[in-house]
Write a structure and sequence with these properties.
alpha/beta; Rossmann fold; binds NADPH dihydro-nicotinamide-adenine-dinucleotide phosphate
């Protein structure tokens, strides 16, 4: 396990890639002291609750990322849990997909995907800047890193305009392309504060979103993402990578 952030906040931690992030971070030889795992329905998050029941580092918070009015409370709850220290790593992982063809695209799916995949991550990042800043200021390591202060937004290659050869997926492509654009701005605006921001593509992964025919399992995906995260520094802030460490064009 190549990254050692002391404090982590993640969205959509109850299943799929988010849950695997929690497992692998906890399995590290130097696991986080505080891992705030948020999800929409903690009462139904069986595996996550089991992990938190045996590991005092894990704090489960109820958070629907489209409940924008709840963000200040999520940040203050996180601040209380962190108890005086900053946040090293924010992972905006929660996401949804619609696959309607052009004739089936609806206003509702365009808006819902924009809310979850694009608008929520920027509002969450904005609200967590003070805690990320606190972590960056407390660190004596000069270069940016995921151990120091970082925003990792889980995007998709489908959000790459340069890579679009298949058409379709209007709502998903637009929401992830928007997330990519936002992440670039975060990287520029937060560079002076030593806070890193990147977008990572997890691969085509066997989750309920990726389906059973996907190319890799969540273990391979998250191992790859963590390896890539370990290579991130100031020069790589504001860039777009896949889980194998290949850079993706915007
Ligand atoms: P899953 O469908 O397995 O999990 C999605 C997660 O997002 C769930 O935890 C879900 O919670 C959560 N979520 C959805 N809506 C909300 C919301 N409004 N508030 C809070 N949480 C929410 O998908 P993956 O694990 O595969 O996807 C994780 C990320 O990876 C997403 O951003 C996705 O776009 C991206 N990705 C995945 C790929 C793949 O092949 N799987 C490919 C490229 C990108 P709940 O259980 O409550 O619904």
């Amino acid at each position: 396990m190549p990254i050692y952030p002391s404090t982590v906040f993640i969205t959509g931690a109850n299943r799929g890639i988010g849950l695997e992030f929690v497992k692998q971070l906890l399995g590290s030889k130097n696991p986080p002291n505080k891992l705030i795992a948020s999800c929409r329905k903690p009462a139904e998050a069986k595996e996550l609750n089991e992990l938190s029941s045996v590991n005092p580092a894990v704090h489960v918070l109820q958070f629907d990322v489209t409940d924008f009015d709840a963000i200040p409370k999520i940040v203050s709850d996180t601040e209380r849990i962190l108890d005086g220290v900053g946040l090293n790593l924010l992972i905006n992982n929660a996401g949804i997909i619609h696959r309607s063809p052009l004739g089936g695209v609806t206003l509702d799916e365009m808006r819902t995907e924009a809310d979850i995949n694009c608008i929520a991550p920027v509002l969450i990042a904005q609200a967590f800047v003070p805690l990320l800043r606190k972590a960056a200021e407390a660190s004596d390591v000069p270069n940016m890193s995921c151990d120091k202060a970082a925003i990792v937004n889980i995007t998709s290659k489908v959000g790459s305009i340069a890579d679009n050869r298949g058409g379709g997926r209007y709502a998903y492509r637009a929401s992830k392309a928007g997330l990519n654009a936002i992440t670039k701005s975060l990287s520029i605006d937060l560079a002076k504060e030593n806070i890193l921001a990147v977008v990572l593509h997890p691969g085509w992964v066997q989750t309920s979103m990726g389906g059973p025919d996907a190319l890799i399992d969540t273990v391979t995906c998250v191992q790859g993402l963590l390896n890539v995260m370990a290579t991130l520094d100031a020069q790589k802030s504001g860039t777009f990578w896949d889980y194998k460490g290949e850079q993706i064009p915007w």
